Phosphoribosyltransferase (Nocardiopsis changdeensis), 165 residues
Amino acid sequence: MSDDRETLTYELFGTAMRELAQEIADDGFEPDIILSIARGGLFVAGGLGYALGVKNLHVMNVEFYTGVGTTLDMPVMLPPVPNVVDLSDKRVLVADDVADTGKTLKLVHDFCAEHVAEVRSAVIYQKSHSLIDCEYVWKRTDQWIDFPWSVLPPVVSREGQVLDS
């Protein structure tokens, strides 16, 4: 992996949310629910929720990345898993910060597909090797991305958590 990095600031994140929301609105897609993939997708879902006037936000916890460029073999859904009854016959927008490998988005997309009226995905960044081609992408890059919410180390260390030094 190259040392070159894409850097997203909080200010640029605000721009990205407005532009991504405008792309979704211009496409005519009106989600009933925004399903965020925690943790990075929480920020995206909140920004899109406000910009698109959607108050019905749900969270799906998925673990995949364990460090810079290191992952589990496959993404894993962590409890609590959303109840499919809450998603039934809804237009769902899955929100995440990046479609890197696409494995996490594919897991969530497949989870939703059999139960919802329609599922689409929105990300800030998508990489060329992603398994999923998201309907809404703010920017395409193949660099590692420094997000403003994860570029600094945690304030506290938690037992069993992998921390970069």
